[in-house]
Every structure is written in C-alpha cells, then in structure tokens.
Write a structure and sequence with these properties.
Cofactor: Zn(2+)
Distance between the termini: 30 Å
CATH class: Alpha Beta
CATH superfamily: Aldolase class I
Number of helices: 11
Keywords: Metal-binding, Transferase, Zinc
Number of strands: 12
CATH topology: TIM Barrel
Order of helices and strands: EHEHHEHEEHEHEHEHEHEEEHH
GO molecular function, one term: metal ion binding
Pfam families: BKACE (PF05853)
Largest sheet: 8 strands, parallel, barrel
CATH architecture: Alpha-Beta Barrel
Helix content: 25-40%
Length: 308
C-alpha cells in the first residue's frame, strides 16, 4: 500500500473546560454527533474521553463511556481509541477502567511521568465558569501527571491481554527511550503508533527543531517498526501537524488539543478541524487513510473484537 496519512481526531479531552468554547462536546449526544461528523470528514481514528453531562467535568467511569461508544460504532467504521490518561488527578485504576471494560482496538498510553501545567489556560475562561474549572486548571501548577514504569507495565499487560493496541503518547524525548525499554522487554509488539506531543508546559516545546529531534530519536531507537503521529497543542496545532505530514508522519487534530480553527476563530466543530487538515494534506499530494486502511497499518484486532 502506498503511504497514506492517518488522521486522528481527539473529540473532547480532559484539558479544555466548557466555558472556553460553546462547541466543546460534553454530553453523550454531543460526543457521539461530533465523533461521527469527524469520521465523515476523514478521521480514521477517534480518540475519546468522557465528561459528566451536567458539569462538563472529565468522567472516567465505564458507564459514561458506554453512553456513546456503541452509538459511535454503529454509525461509523472509525477506530475508536479510549484514553487511559483520563482527567487530571485521577488514579491509575480510574484511568484504566473504561478501556479494560470496553477492550477497544486502540488505547492511549502516556509513556512517562512529568509536570503537566495547564494553569495558563485560565486566561481562556469566558463568562461565568463552572465552579470546578478555575481550581482544576490552577491546581496543575503543583501536579505531576503520573505514569511510572510499574503503571505503564500494568496497563500494557492488562490491555494487551485484551488484544488492544496502543497510541504511545510521548511528551518528551525521554518517553521515546521509555517506549524502547518496553519494546526491548517484549511487552508490546509492532507496529508502534507513536504520538509525539508538543506544547504542554512541563514537556517538550513546540519548536520545529524539537519535532525533528523526536523523529530522528524514534528512528534510531525503534527503526522501521513505528508510525509517527504529531500533535501540537493550541495555536501550534496546524503548523506542527503539517510539518509532521511532510516528514512522513500521521496527524492528530481535535478540540481536545486546540479550540481554534484559525487566529481568533473558534472551531465550530471537530469536523471543521479534520476538514482543514485533510485539505492541507491533500494539497501536499498525500492521501488520507480510510479506517480499514488504518487498521491494516496499525495492526488492530478489528471492530468486531471489542466489548461494545
């Protein structure tokens, strides 16, 4: 197969809060509709978090995910990727619970612990924020996003036993070395879907040179057994993911990572961001992968083998 670009769309996440944008999906209906629209626009992978529909706060209970997972599966053929990062401050048990329940084709896996400071996002709060929003964001000045070697190994073993593959989320260069460590132990098998993340305060910065360094490091450590994907936070989203595509990588967009479509313009939907990156990719003379092509590229078990 000629190389094609996998577009991942991260629908809602656990970082942005409802008062920042009226377009951020919160309820099961909104998450379902936004996921289906993103898939129709060209996303082969849909990355999913859940939220309390009343407050908009991140909610990692399996029951909450089951309010939309079956509905999305019924309406689209996209690969559904469940977070194991969850929301800030959650325990490992809370973070793993929905993926262990649903046994998805793909689950995210943070490849290390690090300072995760999004306190600056309070500047994006609008109107009258809900009472949890400001303390949730400001509390990250004193928070470590934890994924120790023991925690990573537990997630790899328990989800691996279900046939789930991983989106390895690498927020810094050391995370690539952590991944290589687990590859050497034989705990995960190729192909490896490596999501390099740029622009979170406390992790690697959103500089083009850093993307080149992450790619050359992954090339050296993992060789030809991986698929690069690129995520840029906030205003760095489209420049970095475009550079990633030019370098032969895949791309991730979505309201989890960036609430805007352009300077000062809130994205009206996840589908709008997917459509924009699709246009850019196709203008570069590249093709996007269908969901089934992405399954072949990533070696997933197929939609018929999940528990929803």
């Amino acid at each position: 197969m000629a190389r094609k670009i996998i577009i991942t769309c991260a629908i809602t996440g656990g970082i942005h809060t409802p008062s920042m944008s009226p377009h951020l999906p919160v309820t099961p209906d909104e998450i379902t509709r936004s996921s289906v629209e993103a898939a129709e626009a060209g996303a082969a992978v849909i990355h999913l978090h859940a939220r309390d529909p009343e407050t908009g706060r991140p909610d990692q209970s399996p029951a909450r995910f089951m309010e939309f997972l079956p509905r999305i599966k019924q309406q689209t053929g996209a690969i559904l990727n469940i977070t194991t990062g969850g929301g800030l401050g959650m325990t490992l048990e809370e973070r793993l619970a929905p993926a262990l329940h649903a046994a998805p084709e793909l689950a995210s896996m943070n490849m290390g612990s690090f300072n995760f400071n999004i306190s600056g996002a309070v500047r994006a709060l609008k109107g009258e924020p809900r009472d949890w929003e400001r303390p949730y964001l400001e509390g990250t000045r004193d928070m470590i996003l934890s994924n120790t070697f023991t925690q990573i190994e537990r997630g790899m073993r328990e989800l691996g036993d279900l046939g789930t593959k991983f989106e390895f989320e690498c927020y810094d260069v050391g995370h690539l070395y952590n991944l290589a460590h687990f590859v050497d132990l034989g705990l995960v098998k190729p192909p490896f879907f490596v999501q390099c993340i740029f622009g979170i305060t406390g992790a690697i910065g959103p500089d083009p040179e850093n993307l080149m360094h992450m790619k050359t490091t992954a090339d050296r450590l993992i060789g030809k057994d991986y698929l690069l994907s690129v995520l840029g936070a906030g205003r760095h989203q489209f420049p970095l993911v475009t550079m990633g595509a030019i370098l032969g990588g895949n791309v991730r967009v979505g309201l989890e990572d960036n609430l805007y479509l352009g300077r000062g313009e809130l994205a009206p939907s996840n589908a709008a961001q997917v459509a924009k990156i699709r246009r850019i990719v196709e203008e570069l003379g590249l093709e996007i992968a269908t969901a089934d092509e992405a399954r072949q590229m990533l070696g997933t078990k197929g939609a018929g083998a999940v528990n929803f």
